[in-house]
């Protein structure tokens, strides 16, 4: 098999067709090759790209050592000067109307991540770029404060979701502390919020989150898709282990924070231990849970198929067939009402299993609710301090 890759322009074939083409089990355009500690194994072209990569053997491959070939691409972080902090939505099947996300891209690198296709808007690949080229919204806390200070904001305060798009406690948060800066603003203004994460670094901010939880201003959701360490290792390569995430659930619960567990996404014939996850989360102190069923939008489909072929070739066809069974013959169905939980007999079966497990462990579907009446608008004064340039790029040192 050829391992080297060359680069050529091919405008006769659209990148969209290559990345998201027909619904058969695609043979990847690139060699299936796993980088250590990374989820995607493709630098897949995104749907807006006019260029694509073509694999060919240039004869150099044999000269490379095994270590060189397995060396994972490094993570880089680039600062962005955002124009707004709060993102509003009116989707009828999302339980919040506003959210805030300090990062674009996510180093956790979950292969099924629904945020991957959004990296295409940055002219970056939803494959490896998504998990190696992270955009940090360096001015987000200041912008957030400015938006909360607008007189109109106080007329309709609702809980805000933190980290609903990409993980707000992904590895570089330990160094950059953008999420902590946002929580400091939330704390100061007594603004209700809930956050969702796979990251154990949320424990660092318990000094702010716990008192807010006590005042019904904060809730946390920890995502645990499986208890299978091997599966989690390859499916969510840079997220904490499932057992470590259970410790985070316990730490939050012991600090008095209402904790829910997300077992999303459910992937047929892959993470079939939903009941065990709910049981373990309940024992750790989680009081509510929710799930979604995998859907494969845009570039996610070829990325996921390629990953399946590499790690579970004997099950790949069965998994893809069942995903289609859940979505009326397609791998994606974005209609409100069915996009989260799919439809048909297999979707009903998952739903029944989920509710039965919830009942068995005395868990709820929703949390107790947050207090929206305590909000105090902040004082906002324009800062003149020099923010990092959008061209500032650095490689985080995870061992600092
Ligand atoms: S932790 Fe969340 S945002 Fe990050 S890659 Fe996984 S699913 Fe995507």
UniProtKB/TrEMBL annotation:
Keyword Transmembrane in record: no
Domain Radical SAM core: 92-330
This protein's UniProt keywords: Iron, Iron-sulfur, Metal-binding
GO function terms (MF aspect): catalytic activity; iron-sulfur cluster binding; metal ion binding
Name of the molecule in the record: Radical SAM core domain-containing protein
